[in-house]
## 1
Amino acid sequence: MRYIQKGEYGVPPSTSIDENDPLFVQAIARAMQVLSTFHDASKPLTLNEIAAAGGMGKSAAQRVVHTLRQLGYVQRDADDRGYVPGIRILDHTRDYLRLNPLVARASPVLMELRRSVRERVDLSLRDGLRLIYAARLQSKRETFFATLVGQSVPIYCTSGGRAMMAHMSDDEVDEIIERSERREITPKTITDPQAIRAKVQEARENGYALALEEVLQGEIAIATALLSPEGRPLGAIHIAGSLSEWDAESFCRRFAPLAGEAAGVINRF
Amino acid sequence: MRYIQKGEYGVPPSTSIDENDPLFVQAIARAMQVLSTFHDASKPLTLNEIAAAGGMGKSAAQRVVHTLRQLGYVQRDADDRGYVPGIRILDHTRDYLRLNPLVARASPVLMELRRSVRERVDLSLRDGLRLIYAARLQSKRETFFATLVGQSVPIYCTSGGRAMMAHMSDDEVDEIIERSERREITPKTITDPQAIRAKVQEARENGYALALEEVLQGEIAIATALLSPEGRPLGAIHIAGSLSEWDAESFCRRFAPLAGEAAGVINRF
DNA sequence: ACGAAAGTATCGTACAGCGATACTTGGTCC
DNA sequence: GGACCAAGTATCGCTGTACGATACTTTCGT
């Protein structure tokens, strides 16, 4: 089981808002830009790398990095080889999770679900064309990097994404499919629009969505959507297991009812 | 079991660096300041609240919030009642965890440890006078908010903190004790400097540290330190259980060797 | 010992961001 | 239901912040 790396896909491409909005403080955008440089990094970065990646001059990168460093959002690498994200980021992680009402509502139910299901249980939230994992309750045999908070996956080829699409209009579904950069993350990833629509329809009929090895080899996942009071899908809960232990049919028979029940509890407050 | 709330203690008080450093970009500091406002919030904030808390004018808050919103680091609350942190924060969480070598090294060992220990296992990292949880492998019966990534606790009164202090010089220990704002988080919290030093000494002798209900009622925790190659303590691993299921002695006898072994593996690469 | 690359410091100028103020919207109280 | 209050949005001229070019120092690798 090798997991996809990087933030390659999904992270909205510096969402091209900017222009000449008089309220927009570009120094802040630069700062976030610098922090986002690390999305595609697999090692500490030098000032010049940061400057180049962010399309800014060395001086600008210097000032931004300097400032972020003072504040604890960027640190020198342990071996003094370059810059890495700083620990202060985690404070904001906590704030985000605490103050997100869906996370707050869903979490106890998720913990409960994890008790009856000895597999990995996840909570993911939508951000544009992707899902971001906000809570992950690991099973025994997982590698850590496959279960990071903040990990994101595309909507079009994941169980959670399809569970959400099942609650959208056909137009919305089509728009997501169109705008997604559909890549074969694994050989099993479904990228054909027609086939995706079929899987969504299947999810509508079953009340849960299924994905087999579409993001991670050997992984089976089912999901159900979490809805706003008005019925709009906001995220999903996932149950994920290994195909070395389960076949698809028995996995679904065993866990789909539990996932459905959990989502039901969360959705009705 | 009620957990302490807020970021009340611990978060370095906007670490009074600033002055007239010519490289310091204050617009960035303002942005982070705004995001940090949420550390003490338990509900969505209005613009005026943000402005007031950050000691800046309404206009400034407006611009900063506007910009952060465009970028996805701040969102409107679901009910449009105020502002909350935005989901983009989680992307940086992932980067931090991925790029932190200690987290990377420790995680597989932690997962392994969790397998043999049916209690909660945590990895925490030092930031000044506090420890921040970077990875948390829950046990069955935990409440979600007690196990958030990004949660922080003081060094002086936690098992992890004492495990780290056990690897510092007496001077360093004293400095931490002195500079810490020592509050009785629970009735059992040890705040007396002399008593803390004794606990540190005890940890030095045992090779692990112990804390009983000092942060969370009913909780027992032991910890061992994680060290840099040079021997400086960088963080700790914790095993936490409930006093309704264990007495201190049997908890230590059972888990201290496992915690020690795990830390040993991590520390020798 | 040398050269290259990374990080740090300096400085005059222009325009980005400043803050005061005024306008719009929406919710609440009597 | 109308009046009020607070929240959010928009505008504008001035000033001081942040800009980028450049030069200096330090740390590597060979």
## 2
Amino acid sequence: MTGKPRDGGRKGFTDRELDIMSVLWREGSGTVAEVRDALGGDVGYTTVLKMLQILEEKEAVSHEREGRAYRYIPLVESVNAGGRALRRIVNKIFHGSAEMLLATLVEDRDFSDEEIQRMRSVLDRAERRRDEE
Amino acid sequence: MTGKPRDGGRKGFTDRELDIMSVLWREGSGTVAEVRDALGGDVGYTTVLKMLQILEEKEAVSHEREGRAYRYIPLVESVNAGGRALRRIVNKIFHGSAEMLLATLVEDRDFSDEEIQRMRSVLDRAERRRDEE
DNA sequence: CGTTGTCAACGATGACCTTCGTAGCGATCG
DNA sequence: CGATCGCTACGAAGGTCATCGTTGACAACG
């Protein structure tokens, strides 16, 4: 009857936590009020504050004083969080097949030619990187 | 002080739930004992049963009798769950950029030439699908 | 027929998530 | 100066998650 241990660091974000991290990644940093505004203002001020304090306890963000308020700064990088999340999905849902993942992604949404071209370039770069070593 | 409502259907899976759904997707179906074995046997029988009952309550699986036991069958398809999870990630972490997502994916792991070729084919198909309509 | 083993149902437990109410503190306004 | 405002700190409330103990059925073994 243990429940899960508090994630002292490293794993994943819950929905609300991800909402908040998303704002910080996009803006670079944010005070409580700024984050709350970016979320549309439909959550209470103290709720956002509490989430930020919990995220700090998990070492996902830190803060520095700015006037009377705190400015919160992400410590975890979005690319790292994204890599973890993608690994989880490709393993648990697509049985390790990146091809199936990509197929699901492109079928899910209509991408422009430019987007598809850029994705192709990503694959080209990956291949070139492979070849030259 | 509300907490989140129990997800009566549709959204996402928690870690353990995903472990279990992953087994059912891979095997097609499973009894409690089969799922438990597939997970490595390091969780209690009643834990697995309970999770399956919760998943059934969420309408992610159903069951039919098989001898004295129940056989659980996934109702949610992996591709749908994958699509939802990918949308969440691309929006919240990669700010809507599928290119960034793909770049993170291919940098995270070393793919073989065959895998990269297959991913390229996925993009080709997507483009062809776009052109012919 | 009693013991043993497999199985589903139920309830409890402990940790966490998300939401706020309330309080305290300093600055600003009137 | 007193009221108010913006801010952080504290803690509680109600819900989920993940785990399992216990119970009761039922069948198979000896």
